[in-house]
């Protein structure tokens, strides 16, 4: 048995680079409330990402919650069932009703053709997800939103640094939300951000994330405590020094996976469209019927060998108890999402993944692909020796 290999791993910069930031925090005694590093990171991210304004948050879920508040969204919001539960949970926390639309079979993003048929007089917004960092069809979504007067809030948790036709996809819609969780391409241990187009909206969001305070004794909105602290911000500033190298390493690992898995029957993968600069946030593979064991069997077999993959996204959000009663959550209305959730497996990909470990992962996938679900790899080896 080898070392544990997880589906993703945080980029950890050298400790000696982080220590001067901690020492400065210790000396100036400013731990939170929009300190020096918080402001510096907002500015650095705006420059790097090619966006106008960044509002930092303690985590991505709080950023989503606040974005919905900032846009005063009410009623029904059309979204995808194929995402992490935080996407829809933030709707429930705001007293909103999720309406699930099926996904595109090629990008795994919300299918614009399914959106329009779900719009009712109660619909006020669309919340798509750039799944695995692959951009949604932002042009079609915006066209629908413009026709019906809807807000568009992008859950861009996976989409750090992604560009389409040379422009950041974070500038699409009314607001875009990033996650800086430890498992993401860029992380601040925990954290998140709202990308907004103008200073007026940034000011409103900054009020909302700090209890609504607009001064020492003035509260202008029913805000929440969602601020990123100085330690998180400092960690992010150190990460910024290494992000280009991390993205390049991810790309190389992704391309190597493609080469190694290219001839494995029953295992397929996808690449971003040609006009997209992708961040290679995940390496999802489709395990179809021609592979000798099921997706779940492969997941379990890899786990037995200390390789921890993820079935992103399984089960669908629409299948959980707080959502399954919704008319739009019926499986027969979400056929593509249902099928996809049964076949997708995200393999480990992170900057420090070695060729040796990558070779071991692929070797085991090939080995499991040559056996039935009732055999074990060890029994196959015995048979071959006999």
Morphology call: globular
Integer tally of domains: 2
Question: Averaging pLDDT over every residue, what do you get?
Answer: 93
Q: Which stretches are poorly predicted, pLDDT < 50 over at least 5 residues?
A: 376-386
Q: Radius of gyration from the CA trace? A: 22 Å
User: Can you list the strand order of the major beta sheet?
Assistant: 2-10-9-6-5-3-4
Instruction: Please summarize the sheet with the most strands.
Output: 7 strands, mixed
Order of helices and strands: EHHEHEHEHEHEEEEEHHHEEEHEHEHH
The CATH architecture classification of the largest domain is: 3-Layer(aba) Sandwich
Structural classification: alpha/beta
CATH topology of the largest domain, which one?
Aspartate Aminotransferase, domain 2
Termini gap = 23 Å
Query: How many helices?
Result: 13
Family: Belongs to the DegT/DnrJ/EryC1 family.
InterPro entries: DegT/StrS_aminotransferase (IPR000653), PyrdxlP-dep_Trfase (IPR015424), PyrdxlP-dep_Trfase_major (IPR015421)
Active site: 184
Protein name: DegT/DnrJ/EryC1/StrS family aminotransferase
């Amino acid at each position: 048995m080898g070392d544990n290999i997880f589906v993703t791993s945080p980029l950890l910069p050298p400790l000696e680079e982080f220590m001067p930031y901690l020492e400065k925090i210790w000396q100036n005694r400013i731990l939170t409330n929009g300190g020096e590093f918080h402001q510096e990171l907002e500015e650095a991210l705006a420059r790097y990402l090619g966006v106008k304004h960044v509002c930092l948050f303690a985590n991505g879920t709080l950023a989503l919650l606040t974005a919905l508040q900032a846009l005063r969204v009410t009623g029904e919001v059309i979204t995808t069932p194929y995402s992490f539960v935080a996407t829809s949970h933030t709707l429930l926390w705001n007293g909103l009703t999720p309406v699930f639309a099926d996904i595109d079979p090629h990008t795994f993003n919300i299918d614009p053709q399914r959106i329009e048929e779900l719009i009712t007089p109660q619909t006020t917004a669309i919340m798509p997800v750039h799944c695995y960092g692959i951009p949604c069809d932002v042009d079609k979504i915006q066209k629908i939103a413009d026709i019906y007067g809807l807000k568009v809030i992008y859950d861009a948790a996976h989409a750090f640094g992604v560009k389409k036709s040379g422009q950041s996809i974070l500038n699409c819609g009314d607001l875009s939300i990033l996650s800086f969780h430890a498992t993401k391409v860029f992380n601040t241990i925990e954290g998140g951000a709202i990308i907004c187009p103008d200073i007026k909206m940034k000011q409103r969001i900054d009020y909302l994330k700090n209890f609504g305070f607009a001064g020492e004794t003035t509260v202008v909105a029913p805000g929440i405590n969602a601020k990123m602290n100085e330690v998180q911000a400092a960690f992010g500033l150190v990460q910024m020094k290494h992000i280009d190298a991390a993205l390049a390493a991810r790309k190389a690992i992704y391309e190597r996976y493609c080469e190694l898995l290219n001839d494995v029957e029953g295992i397929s993968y996808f690449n971003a469209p040609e006009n997209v600069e992708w961040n290679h946030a995940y390496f999802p593979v489709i395990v179809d019927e021609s592979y000798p064991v099921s997706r779940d069997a492969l997941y379990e077999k890899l786990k037995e060998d200390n390789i921890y993959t993820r079935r992103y996204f399984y089960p669908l959000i629409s299948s959980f108890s707080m959502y399954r009663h919704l008319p739009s959550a019926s499986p027969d209305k979400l056929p593509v999402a249902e099928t996809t959730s049964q076949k997708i497996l995200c393999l480990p990909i992170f900057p420090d993944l070695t060729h040796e470990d990558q070779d071991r992962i692929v070797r085991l996938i090939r080995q499991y692909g040559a056996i039935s679900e009732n055999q074990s790899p060890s029994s196959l080896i015995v048979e071959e020796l006999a």
